[in-house]
Amino acid sequence: MSTPRHGPSAHASAADDGVKSDSGNRVAQLLESVLDDAAPTPTLAPVRLATASGEVADRLVTAIALGEYLPGHRLPSERKLAAAMGVSRPAVREALARLGGSGIVEIRRGRSGGAFVRTSWGAASADAIRHALVPRWNEFEQLLDLRSLIDDIVGRVAAERSTPTQQKEMGAALKKYRNAANPAEEQIADAAFHSAILASTGNPQLFQLSRSLLAGTSLAIPFEPWPPEQGVDRAGFLRALADHEAIYDAICNHDAEQAGQLSRRHFEITAETFRDVLARAQSDPQEDQPQRDVSASDRPE
After folding, report:
1. 201 CB burial (10 A radius; 0-12, 13-18, 19+)
2. What pLDDT does 25 receive?
3. Least packed by Cβ within 10 Å: which of 34, 66, 234, 270?
4. Where would I find the HTH gntR-type domain in this sequence (predicted)?
């Protein structure tokens, strides 16, 4: 996803119309300073063709460890992964074969086949995660910080602008999250809840900015990280549920200050997931990996 930009005329128009709320001022100021003058550098630079299949494998292993893809999930198709990462399909195919060989995914053939996640963490995960995260960690921290600021603004604007119909949509998604029977259902309901909040801001540019930042911190197809313990330790689920309910109440009560603060605090779950996964990888014994060979699949088509 591309980060939206505003030209001077757009800002002039906004100034002419007048901003009637605190959060509106914060949106204008943040977008002006971040997007016009210092658009964030994408965290994940284009995959280097010389080591494409190895780097794709590292990113996918990291995405799985973060919970972007849960055990039992089918990974996106080779075509979608290749487009998202800017590599050839043979490079993706070889990367998936590596994951299959390490036992992290299972490759199934046929019309209903694909690469299915078997486990969130394998013997090669720590090394892959270090390759994927450590060289870019400063950029990750900057984007995580920016995402928390944007979530604050989204919560405030949703509290000010959401309609009863939009609040009903949030409530329906919250109910699905509360009644989810497994981590996959939780993940889907969580995405629906946050999408409903974003939509209620009535600002497509703010929606796009939030989604662009999600893409910037994703290792493959943009999905929100999901704490690995969510499916085992219900404390993680209950923490997120309590946050969702508090955010929903603040929005329905049009309490912009409270909604913003709660939304920013809630984002810490995502930030903590990244830090915990990196800490686990760094605590594992360092593995000496052989130099990757450049195969035909590592070359552009």
Report:
1. buried
2. 47
3. 234
4. 50-120
Paired residues of 74 in beta bridges: 116
First to last CA, the chain: 23
Residue 27 burial (CB count, 10 A): 23
With tokens 């799985």, the residue in question is 64
Residue range 87-136, pLDDT digits in tens:
999 999 999 999 999 999 999 998 888 999 999 999 989 999 999 999 99
**Where in the chain are the domains?**
140-281
pLDDT single digits (tens) 273-295: 999 999 999 998 655 443 333 33
Could you give the residue ranges of the DSSP H alpha helices within the chain? 8-17, 22-31, 52-66, 78-85, 89-101, 125-133, 137-161, 164-178, 183-199, 204-216, 234-252, 256-266, 268-283
- The CA distance from 84 to 2, in Å, is 12
